[in-house]
Fold:
Amino acid sequence: MLRSVYSFLMPPSRSTIGVLISGGVDSAVLLDRLLRQGCRVQPIYVRCGFRWEAAELRHLRRLLHALHRKALKRLMILDVPLRSAYGPHWSFGGARVPGARSTDAAVYLPGRNALLLSHAAVACAQRGIDHLALGILKSNPFGDASPQFLRQMASALTLALGRRVRILTPLRQMSKARVIQSGRGVPLALTFSCINPRGDRHCGMCNKCAERQRAFRQTGLRPS
Structure:
């Protein structure tokens, strides 16, 4: 019987890892750590049609170019349109974007981790990749980021795909400020964390911009 794996530990060196990446600080630092560990890394971006994705993807491509190593594979983009599933929702335009003083709950995207993991796991299985990592932090309050969910998701995917799926969250015990401190060698100025961009620039006023600014202030560094 195949046994699934969920772990917040780093994988063995020389493993091939699929990494769900957005271009934000967390996934950038995770990607860099895995490369330094000696892993072969397949970055995966899941494009859902959200209002910020065009700017996010441009920043992500610049970041990957800056981090380029032989072990870093070409970016894989999976198209998973969610507009019809979400219906009227601020993430697709129209409604106002949650501002700097809004709560975490205001920016929750329902079931997003389930969708990201299921599509990425299928893509990885088709390419013989068993490990799938994402940059979840200890501050994430949502059910689809909990160890219980990730453990059960790994089990369900292992059963569905007929091969062992290992879900890894190596940053699980870290705060965003600590992630920034640990990524001082990473070109963090190229990262992007805004849900209402002005062209390619951070708006400076949304929930995610405020979260980014707070974390950088805690480290004594300036956000880009």
